[in-house]
Design a protein that fits this description.
heterodimer; A: Rossmann fold; 2 domains; six-stranded mixed sheet; B: alpha/beta; 10 helices; 22% strand
Chain lengths: 560, 282
């Protein structure tokens, strides 16, 4: 299952946390150490930087550096308070709408949508202007202005969780609504929420400072960085250093929060560590083809996961021209890995090596010839709903192989495909090509997928659980199609399935796989007569329910 | 049919979606389940079998018709009555990976089923351990999280959660379709054992006719939200009266009636319904 290896903490997170830690230390100690220096009025006004005053003094003779450092506490406290306000209110609104009735949710979300469209700083300015200038009102204004976006994002995240079965089940069991929120919804959005809080702290910091800068926030004699910028502005030409201190601190704090947020995001995202796709490697001396008559020859194929775990362990098999070979096994048996290594489509970081990996005259271990590979191997995937790009019309997607790999013109490619779709017994092929994937049924998409993979007249068709996502009547149709194509065109098929009944019905020969090994090789005839030796194959057959009742036959002319 | 049925559904229609997307998904469905019987609901995607299950447990609103459980009409009964009756009907969802909260231990999950408000695990420890034992899971599972279990084990936990409430009726919605065949066989055996021990009444929803044949006493065939055929397994499977039922049975690979060399049906483009699209593309 999911491996929970301890991941390395990203450098950005470490840097961000160190910077934040530094800021907190300054916020705690600065007022104690330099509190008097920052507020004591001296006759030494507007002095230039000196060893006594590193950044000079302001118009009342107060040390600018001391003021900058002392202001850290108020600035951070205000930003934290405002962030906390937006987060608490936003999360409550955005999360609780999902446990309330539908009309309430729709109503609240529409209101939030319209407020999100309004820039939050402008909203804050309006609120601050109404509440009057002051520290508390600035915090309240920024907090309220931040609520809509938090509510919006929380509601999106909660919505994804709220539709999961465990929430539905808890609801059915009679768990009270608020409990539903605190027990199931909140914990499951806490990760991304944390990232969001860290990032939005940086923005809140800037917003708060902006309010103070324009005079709506902190009022004299109190001061934060925004206020210091405001005080330094009149003398910006004669004494530019006076604004440098608070500016640098603002940038530093903002960067610290951003780094922390980004670092958290990387750290919490399990997909963050990705290895590149490796080329298959040859093990041992260059193997010679021992079975030249076979279309596909695989000898000593081994596939390893990025962690080093062996997924496919030293397997060998052949596919004869025009043969349908079934690979059957349960999840984790390595059947898909085998097929994907053959098409050189193994996942990133997966290591593939073999002694011989040959398709016709093509040595799949020597790399290159991508284009020939694309022509010689046709692929049909499991889920027709996600194979196609929903934004493009079928025509453009289906003709892609013909245009790219056969170099056909748009017109010629369309004609070829039109014939192909017709051959797949699709009425009105032109109409299908003009439609978007979502307008077609799963069975139709799978037929179209097969048609497009046959355009290049491949020698081998790899079908990876092509009927698993389909209804039983549609499945029967697709199986019959594959069988007919194989018999009429002589296209060899590597058919992967977890269902031994399906494999038995379709294939000429069957390989039974278990934990990366081939445990038994059978002809379809042997399988049908249940002449199997390996206990695993027997267990598989025993576990597979088969229809025992045969419906009473009817007259042939009654059929549709 | 001497006994009065434990669950009787009459002329049930259900609408799904909102506003202009609102569409009728079930049309006048009627069925009766007697105590201790297992009734299979078969049909293809979009036939409304899941909608039927979810409507019975109260996840969808009834448009017309009635659901009577043990003499209580669920649509019109007072709220408190419905709530207590509903606990006697437990629903097991299809996907074992989304039916357990990843952030809660198995013990917490089961405690919530027993005591939805407090979910006090310690107080119900014995009952939690008993429930887990009934699905052949040890006491050590209590403190573990869902990601530590395989799909089959998770499905057993979901069954344990349903049984912890001590229900009369189990609604199993495609509970084995996400599992490997050997795991499926194991879950079906377990379910059969529990059903006999506790005299459970079961609504077994599945697209797999071979499984339904094995598990159920009776069967209901749904097509586009309507029941096209119902009866005992022996009657319906051996002598289907509807062409559609026959086509379903003949499509099962491995079944005696399946013929891979049969002519392929020509497919015409049919513009899909909004619901069909959503099913396919989420």
């Amino acid at each position: 299952m999911s491996d929970r290896r301890p991941r390395r903490i990203p450098a950005s997170l470490i840097a961000g946390l160190i910077m934040l830690g530094l800021l907190v230390v300054i916020a705690v100690v600065a007022p104690m150490l330099w509190g008097t220096a920052a507020t004591a009025v001296t006759p030494d006004t507007r002095s230039a930087p000196s060893p006594a005053h590193w950044l000079g003094t302001d118009d009342l003779g107060r040390d600018v550096l001391a003021r900058t450092l002392v202001a850290t506490r108020l600035t951070l406290v205000m930003a934290a308070a405002a962030t906390a306000g937006s987060v608490i209110l936003g999360v409550l609104i955005g999360g609780l709408v999902w446990v309330g009735p539908r009309w309430l949710r729709e109503g609240v979300l529409r209101v939030i949508d319209s407020t999100v469209a309004f820039p939050s700083l402008i909203l804050a300015l309006v609120i601050a202007a109404i509440l009057g200038a002051g520290t508390a009102s600035a915090v309240v204004a920024i907090a309220i202005a931040g609520v809509p976006s938090f509510a919006r994002i929380t509601s999106n995240m909660t919505g994804a969780v709220a539709n999961r079965d465990y929430v539905g089940t808890a609801r059915l069991l009679g768990v009270p609504r608020f409990r539903l929120f605190t027990r199931h919804l909140l914990p499951n959005i806490s990760g991304p929420l944390l990232v969001l809080i860290a990032s939005s702290f940086a923005l809140t910091l800037l917003d708060i400072s902006s309010l103070s800068f324009v005079g709506l926030g902190v009022q004299s004699p109190e001061f934060d960085w925004g206020r210091l910028l405001n005080e330094g502005l009149p003398a910006v030409y004669s004494q530019p250093l006076q604004v440098v201190g608070p500016s640098v601190m603002l940038v530093f704090a903002g960067v610290a929060a951003m780094l922390t947020g980004d670092g958290l995001a990387v750290w919490l995202d399990p997909r963050s560590s990705r290895a590149a796709r490796a080329k298959p490697t040859r093990r041992g001396p260059r193997g010679t083809a021992t079975r030249p008559e076979a279309l596909v020859e695989v000898r000593g194929l081994t596939v390893r996961a990025p962690g080093g775990k062996t997924l496919v362990d030293d397997i060998s098999f052949e596919i004869a021209p025009g043969e349908i070979l079934g690979l059957v096994g349960e999840s984790g048996s390595g059947k898909s890995m085998t097929a994907m290594s053959l098409a050189r489509l193994q996942a990133d970081g997966v290591g593939v090596d073999a002694e011989v990996l040959r398709l016709d005259d093509l040595d799949l271990l020597s790399g290159g010839h991508r284009s020939r590979l694309a022509k010689e191997i046709g692929l049909v995937y499991q889920d027709p709903g996600s194979t196609f790009n929903p934004a493009l019309r079928m025509g453009a997607q289906l003709t892609e192989v013909a245009r790219v790999h056969l170099g056909l013109s748009r017109r010629a490619a369309r004609d070829t495909l039109s014939d192909g779709l017709g051959e797949m017994r699709i009425r009105e092929p032109e109409k299908v090509m003009g439609q978007h994937p979502f307008q077609l049924s799963g069975g139709m998409l799978q037929r179209a997928g097969i048609a497009s993979s046959l355009v290049t007249d491949p020698k081998l068709l790899i079908a990876d659980e092509p009927t698993t996502a389909l209804d039983v009547t549609v499945q029967a149709d697709v199986l019959r199609q594959l069988r007919r194509l194989n018999r009429e065109h002589g296209t060899a098929v590597l058919f992967i399935s977890h269902d031994i009944g399906v494999v038995e019905a379709l294939c000429d020969r069957v390989l039974v796989m278990r934990t990366g090994e081939i445990v038994e090789r059978l002809t379809a005839e042997q399988l049908r007569r249940r002449e199997v030796d390996h206990p695993y194959t027997r267990a598989l057959l025993a576990a597979t329910p088969t229809l025992k009742t045969t419906p009473r036959p009817i007259e042939e002319h009654d059929r549709v | 049919m001497s006994e009065t049925p434990l669950l009787r559904i009459s002329d049930l229609s259900v609408d799904l979606g909102h506003g202009i997307r609102r569409a009728r998904v079930l049309h006048g469905v009627g069925l009766a389940v007697e105590r201790g019987r297992t009734i299979g609901v078969v049909g293809e995607s979009g036939s409304g079998k899941s909608t039927l299950a979810k409507t019975i447990v109260g996840l969808h609103r009834v448009a017309t018709g009635s659901i009577v459980f043990d003499g209580v009409e669920l649509a019109s009964a007072p709220r408190a009555t419905v709530a207590s009756v509903r606990r006697r009907v437990q629903y097991i969802p299809q996907d074992p990976f989304s039916s357990l909260d990843p952030r809660r231990t198995i013990g917490q999950t089961l405690a919530e089923a027993i005591d939805p408000v407090g979910a006090r695990q310690r107080r119900h420890h014995t009952r939690i351990v008993e429930s887990l034992a009934s699905v052949a899971l040890g006491e050590d599972a209590v403190e573990r999280y869902p990601h530590e279990f395989s799909g089959g084990q998770r499905q057993r936990i979901a069954i344990a959660r349903a049984l912890a409430v001590d229900p009369d009726v189990i609604i199993a919605d495609e509970i084995t379709s996400a599992l490997d065949v050997s795991t499926q066989a194991e879950i079906l055996r377990l379910l059969e054992k529990l059903r006999r021990e506790r005299n459970l009444t079961m609504l077994f929803i599945s697209h797999n006719l071979a499984v339904v044949e094995e598990v159920c006493d009776e069967v209901v065939v749904l097509l586009h939200g309507r029941i096209v055929e119902q009866g005992t397994i022996a009657d319906v499977f051996a002598d289907p009266r509807e062409e559609y039922t026959r086509r379903l049975l003949e499509s099962v690979p491995g079944g005696a009636a399946f013929d891979v060399t049969a002519p392929v049906v020509t497919a015409a483009v049919r513009t899909m319904s909004v619901r069909g699209r959503r099913r396919l593309f989420g």
